[in-house]
Amino acid sequence: MTSASLPPAASPLLDHSPASLPARSYYDPTWFELEQRLLWPKTWIYAGRVAEFVAGTLNRRSIAGENLMVVCDDTGHLRAFHNTCRHRGSELCVAQTQSFNGKLIRCPYHAWAYSASGALVSTAFGTPSDDFTKADHALFPVALKVWNGFVFLCLADEAPAFEPDLGTEILNNWPMNDLVVGHVFQKRLACNWKVFWENYNECLHCPGVHPVLSQRVPIYQQGLMAPNEARSWSPSALPAPALGDGAETWTVSGKLCGPPFTRLTEQERAEAHTFVTLYPSLYLVAHADYVRAVTVIPISPEETLLRAEWLFLPDTLAQSSFDVSDVTDFATQVMKEDGEACEINQRGLKSSKFTHGRLMPEEFDVYGFQQWVLSFLPKDTEAGFK
Ligand code: FES
Ligand SMILES: [Fe+2]
Hints:
Blueprint: E1 19-22, H1 29-38, E2 45-49, E3 57-63, E4 66-72, E5 78-82, E6 97-99, E7 104-106, E8 113-115, E9 120-122, E10 141-147, E11 150-154, E12 180-189, H2 193-200, H3 206-209, H4 211-216, H5 266-271, E13 274-278, E14 282-286, E15 291-300, E16 303-312, H6 314-318, H7 324-348, E17 356-358, H8 364-374, H9 381-384
Antiparallel strand pairs: 1-17, 2-11, 3-4, 3-6, 4-5, 5-10, 7-8, 8-9, 10-11, 12-16, 13-14, 14-15, 15-16
Helix pairs in contact: 2-7, 2-8
The chain binds FE2/S2 (inorganic) cluster (FES) and fe (ii) ion (FE2).
């Protein structure tokens, strides 16, 4: 639902009904392997909130099958490397999180030691001959970027520009760096990761799949994400309230869960939900009182891990009246409904009769997502899987 907070500059509706991706792209292991090799390593992937990385620790992460580690040195500075020793390739970080002295990363096998910046410092009991240069045997670096308290990694030697769909400044009025995780929801979905993103990118399913959410966000009752998608819309149309029933935010009660963020503009308050998309691993929904971060992780061609983190100001969590379930039950229900829809979709598209679908003009963001996926793959990929 990426368009919810865009200014209604023009109708985004497609002028045709394009074919969707080949059905096999959602379950064929060869297509999945292409994505793992050509798409995921070329993009910025969410790896956790800054606060997860404690000073003096190594932290395992995995992207597209690559074993990585995030190093947090004794000053809290973050760097990332491939989790492999330059001697004979042992893993360096052997646990999800393990402490090191903050200065030297020591290989558990023959004790080669590296600085927190990845330089080889010692070959321990091995005495190198003259043809060995320590400087040529630093750890393999991985690009790391911190944005609004979120840590991203990129496997590419030349990382692409970091580009959330609404720009890097869209959340500047939210106190993003101060927010802490107050609740986590995780669910394994029996669907391809693209099925999840396609569902995210349209609201045609909203009236049927999300009755409670559609009550809360009236535009969703029309199967639309934003007013400018309506056929009757004109640029001079006055904006309607984003939320129905006098609700102030996305909670079960409709009430704010804590004091609203103080720097939001009137328009940001009025929009009630700002969706920010960072393909292929993360989307954010920023409300007036909290933010939800949702991670999409492919496990196999037909399995995807969905993980949601609710982020609050510490003062909000500390309120004696704070009711976390009033906040988290609302979107958890929505994500369960989406997850079920995605699994139904996955099962149906495996019919031998279904080779590809057709998109409706309202599915412009689905189409954009599919074109984005194809942009990473060789030109003839789609034709080869029909
Ligand atoms: S493999 Fe790391 S020191 Fe030998
Ligand atoms: Fe949905």
